[in-house]
Design a protein that fits this description.
By secondary structure, this protein is α/β, with parallel strands linked by helices. The protein has 2 domains: about 5-220, Alpha-Beta Complex (DHBP synthase); about 245-345, 3-Layer(aba) Sandwich (Rossmann fold), CATH 3.40.50.11030. About 30% of the residues lie in helices and about 20% in strands. The strands form 2 sheets. Strands 1-8-2-3-7-4-6-5-9-10-11 form an 11-stranded mixed beta sheet, with helices on both faces. It has a 5-stranded parallel beta sheet with strand order 14-13-15-12-16, with helices on both faces. A hairpin with a 6-residue loop joins strand 9 (about 185) and strand 10. About 45% of the residues are buried. The protein binds adenosine monophosphate and magnesium ion. Magnesium ion binds near residues 144, 145, 153 and 182. Pfam families: Sua5_C, Sua5_yciO_yrdC. Keywords: ATP-binding, Cytoplasm, Nucleotide-binding, Nucleotidyltransferase, Transferase, tRNA processing.
């Protein structure tokens, strides 16, 4: 498949390019575009065949539903059965932005888009390029992250082009993704709201608006056998080719352990990497993949650095762990999956 690749300046948006990509969506094609979280791989959410192309391009299992993106709040009216008070509160406070809400779907949303569920997960992105493409296409856009299934979500142009050229009709390269982790997903169907996927809109922020909100219990453990509300939760995710291990303990002990392993590994031709905050980089003799200086930066950089591990052909990587509060919950959720829950205590 030939892929049209274009760049767009988010500070000076060329409407002709937007309309070219909007038309591709309206014509049932697949387009990768930037959002404020990660790049999305989009197609017309109302067109079953177009939605099928997303699964095909990603190699994604067909029971793992797609997120649907709108450009204005009113656009959800034809898509969902009802909008209750809590949903309204969340939309008023956090849209446009990195929050996805699960609604009961109307028949217009094909089961191919909802992964066979009677619900549909919807968000309104704040990224201007993303919103303009949705508007121009005049369609709700189904768009999961633009990675091959099971791999880290991409936030950088070069990573997308490497993996996805030839698998989609268009790739639009825009500005950097400000958040770097995918949207928070919240389900309001139960007795109290439940977060199915943690993100940059934190539990604390949701609680301020809604009162009681909990993390889905399936997020707490390896969830191979759980009939999860977010079917995506059961699949292996965010895995670089390197074996990633999380390391718990004092940073000095972590560094000592890694530096010893690194010596052994070098003699065996095994390449060792470390994922840690930038301030610790000098403690390590192995290849360091810097995650930044604040939790927000770690969230933004984590997927990039996981992909960089592969580009540098790292065989084994040791990762610092983070406190599970605020955006640390989202960071640890992604890190645990990329490490297949392996943890070393030093
Ligand atoms: P992605 O952004 O590609 O990683 O995938 C979208 C995520 O949203 C997946 O993990 C899905 O499991 C989740 N999701 C999509 N639709 C629903 C839904 N109706 N109910 C619960 N979770 C959903
Ligand atoms: Mg994804």
């Amino acid at each position: 498949m030939e892929t049209i690749i274009k760049k767009i300046d988010p500070n000076n948006i060329d409407q002709d390019i937007i309309d070219e990509f909007g038309k591709m969506i309206a014509d049932g094609k697949t387009v990768i575009f930037p959002t404020e979280t990660v790049y999305g791989l989009g197609a017309n959410a109302l067109d079953e065949d177009a939605a099928s192309k997303i699964y095909e391009a990603k190699g994604r299992p067909s029971d793992n539903p797609l997120l649907v993106h709108v450009s204005e709040i009113e656009e959800i009216n034809p898509l969902v059965k009802k909008i209750d008070k809590k949903a309204k509160l969340l939309m008023d406070k956090f849209w446009p932005g990195p929050l996805t809400i699960v609604f009961e779907k109307k028949d217009i949303i094909p089961y191919r888009t909802s992964g066979g569920l009677d619900t549909v997960a919807i968000r309104m992105p704040s990224d201007e390029v993303a919103r303009r493409i949705i508007k121009s296409s005049k369609k709700p856009i189904a768009a999961p992250s633009a990675n091959l299934s099971g791999r880290p979500s991409p936030t950088k142009a070069e990573h997308i082009i490497n993996d996805m050229q030839g698998r989609v009709d268009g790739i639009l390269i825009g500005g950097p993704c400000n958040y770097g982790v995918e949207s928070t997903i919240v389900d309001l169907s139960g007795e109290y709201p439940v977060v199915l996927r943690p993100g940059s809109i934190t539990l604390e922020m949701l609680r301020e608006v809604l009162g009681k909100v909990e993390l889905d219990p399936a997020l707490m453990r390896k969830s191979d056998n759980i009939k999860a509300k977010a079917p995506g939760m059961k699949y292996k995710h965010y895995s670089p080719k390197a074996d990633v291990y999380m390391v718990k303990g004092q940073i000095e002990d972590f560094a000592r352990m890694v530096n010893e392993k690194n010596k052994e590994n070098v003699s065996k031709g095994i390449k060792t990497g470390v994922l840690c905050m930038s301030k610790y980089k000098d403690l390590f003799e192995a290849d360091v993949f810097e995650l930044g200086d604040s939790y927000e930066e770690v969230a933004k950089n984590l997927f990039d650095e996981l992909i960089e591990l592969d580009q540098k052909q790292i065989d084994i990587a040791y990762a610092q762990i983070f406190e599970e509060k605020d955006v640390g919950v989202a960071i640890m959720n992604r890190l645990k999956k990329s490490a297949a829950y392996r943890l070393i205590e030093v």
